[in-house]
Write a structure and sequence with these properties.
Blueprint lengths: L8 H5 L14 H7 L39 H6 L5 H9 L1 H4 L13 H13 L2
Length: about 130
């Protein structure tokens, strides 16, 4: 069976290929392990606290820079994107390229499988 790959404008702009979940889902358990790189700064629990970064519960489908009580960079607030899987994959692959001026110091996830897995985990944590 061939996997069809969907390239959205945002993902294409940032050189990230997103395999849609209907076609090939990431692994939630593997994504939880990948999220270990993120949990120093982020939580995913419903009602969880903002840490160095905002709480990511419900991030997919949410407009960027809208978590109450978190002080976002002006550059992220100005992007006006809604976090869908493609935007999130592009951002997580290279935060500074996607959003010059970001406060996020993380260099990014360079492996496509890690991106797919962590996005599956974030979706499961909705």
């Amino acid at each position: 069976m061939k996997l069809l790959v969907l390239m959205t404008a945002a993902a294409a702009l940032h050189g990230v290929t997103l395999v849609t979940p209907a076609m090939a889902a990431g692994d939630v358990a593997a994504g939880e392990k990948v999220f270990g790189k993120c949990k120093v700064c982020h939580t995913v629990d419903s009602g969880g606290k903002n840490l160095v970064g905002p709480n990511l519960h419900g991030v997919i489908g949410r407009k960027a820079a809208t978590v109450s009580g978190f002080n976002y960079s002006s550059s992220l607030a100005a992007l006006g994107v809604t976090w869908d899987e493609a935007n999130l994959a592009a951002y997580l692959a290279d935060p500074r390229k996607f959003n010059p001026g970001t406060k996020m110091v993380f260099a990014g996830l360079k492996k496509q499988q890690e991106l797919d897995d962590v996005i599956a985990y974030l979706k499961a944590a909705q």
